[in-house]
Amino acid sequence: xxxxxxxxxxxxxxxxxxxxxxxxxxxxxxxxxxxxxxxxxxxxxxxxxxxxxxxxxxxxxxxxxxxxxxxxxxxxxxxxxxxxxxxxxxxxxxxxxxxxxxxxxxxxxxxxxxxxxxxxxxxxxxxxxxxxxxxxxxxxxxxxxxxxxxxxxxxxxxxxxxxxxxxxxxxxxxxxxxxxxxxxxxxxxxxxxxxxxxxxxxxxxxxxxxxxxxxxxxxxxxxxxxxxxxxxxxxxxxxxxxxxxxxxxxxxxxxxxxxxxxxxxxxxxxxxxxxxxxxxxxxxxxxxxxxxxxxxxxxxxxxxxxxxxxxxxxxxxxxxxxxxxxxxxxxxxxxxxxxxxxxxxxxxxxxxxxxxxxxxxxxxxxxxxxxxxxxxxxxxxxxxxxxxxxxxxxxxxxxxxxxxxxxxxxxxxxxxxx
Length: 418
Hints:
It contains 13 helices and 22 strands.
């Protein structure tokens, strides 16, 4: 579809939607972005701010499948299930278990690697357009382990990463202390991924990209799209409760809210929600870690910056509507203090966000199955911030009829056809 005089609606104003909008603008399209929460109102605001260029191993692996029953039943596990919601996830978990074969893990890792190796350059490109490259720092990402058993279990995934060219620098206790003197000497093992990037304030970063989009003539509508109107293999309008928005093409990039809209295009995607919490604790920059870290035993990420330490939880399966419960993460404050040499301050903020998750961990990027002018861009799970810009470039190519630089077959929505 030619960009000249053509209008595109992008549903979703997170990092994926805004990246799609900017690349579509660059291709000459008139773009409208629609989101009820505005720019960066969802997961793009509250994530850990990591561009994790090496995270190519999917969530479902043979080891995870074996450990899953224990993780779901342990009340102290980093993986929590609301059992009232569990019946709605039966199909998702069935597909998750099927995805945990060695063959499928290799396929998913290769598919993710193809995107991840383009991720850093794609961020620098958009940040350069918006004049905010200073928001991105190459900090690395340190994964820490107190116990031998948790480290040995993690080594399986590190070995997989290295087969796909991911740099893993192994560190013993002395090297950890030398690199992070503000940590208490409790960690025995660590792996650093030096090629990972940090965006200290991801919400402000995405808002800067959104400001560029509007400065270039883009239109932002704050409304909730409840459905898509489809006729003769085309989407004719996006519908809110009160309005009808017409365009020549439509991009569904609504994150965890994309499942129903995808179905309206005639495309089934087994999407569900991984609820993720964060708290922010006051801490002086000279008294905390100098790069983001992952604490293996608790499966939390700690991301420093701006006089705060943002601590993100792992996974809660409870859908989009359950009232948030911050008690579990906040209750670990003493544990977070235990690994720091210096006193941490007060908890200043609490937040809940929704990761859009598909069972095979491969994002959905491609043309809808039964709507020729609709394109899907969601399901990025834990790597949404990382892969937003490269996804935007691919979607713009597909809308324009260009061949993307990456083979998009692994990400196609058609992989879920029965």
